[in-house]
Description:
Blueprint: H1 3-6, H2 24-33, E1 38-41, E2 44-47, E3 50-54, E4 60-65, H3 71-93
Antiparallel strand pairs: 1-2, 3-4
Amino acid sequence: MNSEILVRLPGGDPESWHFVTGPLDEVKTVSRQFGLNFWPDEGYFTHSLHTLVIDRRGRPAADFEGNQFTARQLGDYVEVLISAGSAEAMQRQI
């Protein structure tokens, strides 16, 4: 999606979005690692709707399927994840 179209969408700040691009085989590999699906549809790709939260180690920490959650709920989850990570780091130092 080009940035001209993206900025017209709610929350469409191009600096906030990260797209998986590259050769089709590599995109399929990455998508499968995160349980995502996509398929061709009338010259475009349609995809499942997931919001993934990736921890500081690059591992999936949460998979919110669909869009039946609020920004506050997502923010609360990320805050808890960050706090847990900070507590874990402090325990390693003791």
